[in-house]
Task: structure prediction
Amino acid sequence: MTSVFRRLLLLLSLSLLHHSLSSTANNYIHKKTHFRPELISDLSTKTHPTTFFEVTKPIQLPKTKPCSYLLLQHDFGYTYGSPPVLANYTPPSNCPSQNFAKIVLQWEATCKGTQFDRIFGVWLGGVELLRSCTAEPTASGIFWTVKKDITRYYSLLMNNQTLAVFLGNLVNAVYTGVYHVKITVNFYPAEVNSGNSVSGYGSSADLILPISQNIPSNDGLWFRIGNSADTTSKKFMIPQNAYRAVVEVYVSFHENDEFWYTNFPNNFITANNLSIPLQNGAFREVVVALDGMEIGAVWPFTVIYTGGFNPLLWRPITGIGSFDLPSYDVEVTPFLGTILDGKTHEFAFRVTNALNVWLIDANLHVWLDKESAKTEGQLLEHSVLPAVVSLVSNFTGINGNFLTTVNKSVSSVGWVKSSHGKIATNATQRFDFSNFMVLGKDGDLQIVNQIINFNDSVDAKSSSLSLFSTKSSKRFPLYLYSEAVDKGNGTLSEVTNLTLGYNELGVKDGGSGFSVSSLKNVQNGQGVLLRKRNSIVAGRGSTQQAYQYGDGKFCYFRNVSSSNNAILHDEEGETCRK
Result:
């Protein structure tokens, strides 16, 4: 029996198992393939709790004592089919200063037993603050902390709001892990009374509007997209004195599209008469539309959750972005002239080639002119060169290779007249995608070599004077080697080697000054699982990560490696490395 059909039978059997547990729970239990093996927490030999972590740079804090507020403490047991957990939020009132230089959200959680990784979200007033994935627990227990700089939501945090947290979890005789969670916000007063931010461009927004669901009865506040024809939308209205707007998009992918970059081209499936649904190939993009007009796109980073491929790879070093999934900004300012009429308008989202299920919502950041009751604007130019997909296939039977390449660009120019002057904003996005996939050994081997280049820029000018500009060049490399080896007697060895990278070069000029930042973040992992009659009987996983960040004022590096739940080497520092 070839690996392709072994994997399909495993997918079917485990999907039926999950459905029998709970039809509601099946919505969020990741469907199993060879990339998502059974729970293997019983392989751990540790007798004390393990601290899991995602490697990232420390948040730069002022030398002031924070005012800390516990927002929520809750045990997430059987929560499928239940509404989000709610709590009242009020801004800090007893801090010695109401001028904060930094605001940090802190998530702390423990879990013990057997449990899958779960996606969760934290919203304040419907605005998403954090999208994250839980760690998979062990019998001896685990602990992890996520700290996120939420200073950009300053205006939101200064008003009474409703906190909503959704973590869909299933607890029964098999899945025993309960997530014990504590959420705190730390407010750090500014060292000098210089105000929250520089006025004009470069500051944090004066108003943040949720582009999300109203609090539902049995889900998170995100929208669900189940296929490429699905479009989800939310109506909104902005004040008529806005002079800048940015939509911040949160996105995560699950179930049949959790590993979308490994999906087979449809021509391969039909040519081999495979009895599986079409997988729509290995390219995905999130399209953002305003009043029916595409204004931008997101080509997302390939986050691997803590149960992906081989869970032993992510113990205790988790995958890049898994504890703090990235959000993506799309500049709306060139289009402000079309929505400053005091009427209701609409954001919509869809996912090219999507399979079930994608979770998407957004936050609309709006800057207001305090010196004017009404601004005006006009869209001057708007161009979308749609995604041009090229697929070159070369296969015989279920062996062969496939090269998918895609490129796209979006550019917009518009002006807004306010007390800051008549400012013209030019926003551009440019994307390139390459996915080379190899299938060999009659389907027992799959290799994926993928690169996403995601570049965007914003330039704001008044007459010939540049007021603000930002440029970001992101590069997301991914390499995957996956091989299934039949050992006989019902035993199968599954080998996974992977490389995952998140690299970004950023340039900002204006607002708070000129700065250049660079991030190089690369993980390498090697793992083996031994399966006997659909049960994992042995396994190992090793991970190495090199993280390097610098921005001229602050540098940070960390080199860390682990094997079989233990840290082998860990070196970090705040010196700049070339």
